Amino acid sequence: MISLDWKERLLRDSNDFLERKIPSGDFDFDIIYNAYPSRLENKIPRDIVIFVANALGTKMAKNHKAYLEFCDYIWKNKGTNGKIVFACIINKFIKKDYEFYFAYTKQRINDCKELSEINLLLDKVLYPILKKQPIENIEYLINWLNDDSEKVVQAIIKTILKLGKDSPDFLKKFILRLQNKWLNADIEYTKTMGLFLKCLAKVDYSKYLEIYSSYKNTREPVFVEILTAGLVIYDDLLYELYENWGKSGNARLKKAAITGFKFLSKRKRK
């Protein structure tokens, strides 16, 4: 809990930073809270950093485009706290210009090397926006799953499933739209869909099994290859499906089925 005295001081110093420091090109925002007496593991508490970030963001949002140089600087040069402040500020900005800051944030995500940084931007900046209209963004999210970065894909899947917990209707429609693309899946997309299924199994196992069951009569090799890539645990239903697919006369389908059957057989014995 931040005391009233410190809230007043932090707000006052935030305003001073905006009025005097930023116009002169001094972007070292940590001067605002460096005098704060308490530390956690020798670091300023995160709630102090977030309080300052929100104070700055609220003021900056009135003329947001004027502060992009500052935002770029703190993201690149001010370490973990800089990234937290950046995310809090852009969370304010995106409400002023959705299309510009969505693209701006996406570019930052694509440049990230650390999964923690990607998750920060998705959770703090984009998720609140996506949550308001998840169904309208289905196509955008599906296309984003084609990203070249495995870390980005992992984070997008996490965001999709988080949206699905808040909106079951979104998840149902998303999965149906996703399945419409399975027939043309290449090796990389098969791998991505396998990852999606594995993640889905952790948050909604009944939905996971429902997808497998819906393909029980399929004879399309690519569908079985995707389902095989998504195997994560033994289940009697899955065992029966793969036992049946293993009897296929289609060499490609049978190969995928045997791979899946071996996986399930090993899990069954444990």
What portion of the residues fall into strands of 2 or more residues? under 5%
Q: How many strands in all?
A: 0
Poorly predicted spans? none
Quaternary arrangement of the chains shown? single chain
Summarize the biggest pleated sheet.
none
Question: What's the domain count?
Answer: 3
Ends apart, CA distance between termini: 49 Å
Radius of gyration: 24 Å
Count of runs of 4 or more consecutive helical residues? 14
The average pLDDT score comes to 94
- The helical percent reads over 70%
The string of secondary-structure elements, in order, is HHHHHHHHHHHHHH
> Outline, from the CA principal axes?
elongated
Structural category is: mainly alpha
Structure, briefly:
This protein has helices spanning 4-21, 46-60, 68-77, 79-93, 98-111, 115-132, 138-144, 150-166, 168-179, 187-203, 205-213, 221-229, 236-245, 251-269. By secondary structure, the chain is mainly alpha-helical. It folds into three domains: 1-93, no CATH class; 96-180, no CATH class; 204-270.
Description:
The chain is mostly helical. It folds into three domains: 1-93, no CATH class; 96-180, no CATH class; 204-270. It has 14 helices and no strands. The chain is elongated. The model has no long low-confidence stretch (mean pLDDT 94).
